[in-house]
Structures are given as C-alpha cells and as structure tokens.
Amino acid sequence: MRIVTRIALVLVIIGALNWGLIGLFQFDLVATLFGGQASILSRVVYTLVGISGIVSLGILFETNDATDSDVEHSRFSNPNYGTEFGEEPDFTEQRDAARRRSDDDTML
To answer: What is the mean pLDDT of each run of 10 residues along the chain (108 residues)?
Structure first.
C-alpha cells in the first residue's frame, strides 16, 4: 500500500472516531485539541480528513490485482505446511519390520 494511502486511511479513521464521539457524546475531540471549530488548526485537520476521504475512495474501487502487487511473494512462493494435502512419508517398511520382530518374539 502506498504511503499516501496509509496516511489517508489513518486520517479517515481519526475523522470517523471524531464523528463517533460527536454522535455519541456531543464531544468534538479535534475542536477541543485545537481550540474550537473555527480555529485555523481545526479547519486544517477537518480539511485533511476530507481530502483523505476522497483519496480513500480509490481504495474502495481498487481491484485485487492492484492490492496484491504490493505484497512480496518471493518469501511465500513455496510454503510447505505439512497439511493433509501434502506428501506424507511412507512408514510401511518400518511398520512391517516392527510386525516381523513382534511375530518373532511371540514365536519364542
């Protein structure tokens, strides 16, 4: 994911949390931190959150190919997790040898 997209996503999350606080508790965290809704700093934060929302619209319409290209696939090119679909070692020779030994022991 590009760095601009990550920053935009963080700002959108901050804006969403701020709107949640406004909706639930009538408390505007940004205005409280930066000196009221009309202060320059608050307006800059509100503007950046709005621009981040526009940038984040691109995430909504991205295809999976675009998001998968950022992942480094070389580390995961051939994972062997030993699942039920993988090859299992053949222990039939050891089992047969153990049976022959136990059969020999029972004959004595």
So the answer is: 88 95 95 94 95 90 64 56 64 84 72
Q: How high is the pLDDT of residue 49? A: 96
Residue positions counted in the chain: 108
Identify the pLDDT of residue 103: 76
Question: In whole angstroms, what is the distance from residue 3 CA to residue 47 CA?
Answer: 19
Indicate the pTM of the whole model. 0.57
Distance (Å, whole) CA 58 – CA 5:
9
Residue from 101, 83, 85 nearest 93 by CA: 101
Return d(Cα 77, Cα 60) in angstroms, integer: 28
Residue type, 37: Q
CB 85 within 8 A of CB 74: no
C-beta of residue 12 within 8 angstroms of C-beta of residue 54: no
Computed over its alpha carbons, how large is the radius of gyration of the chain?
30
DSSP class per residue in 79-105: -----TTS-----HHHHHHHHHHHHHH
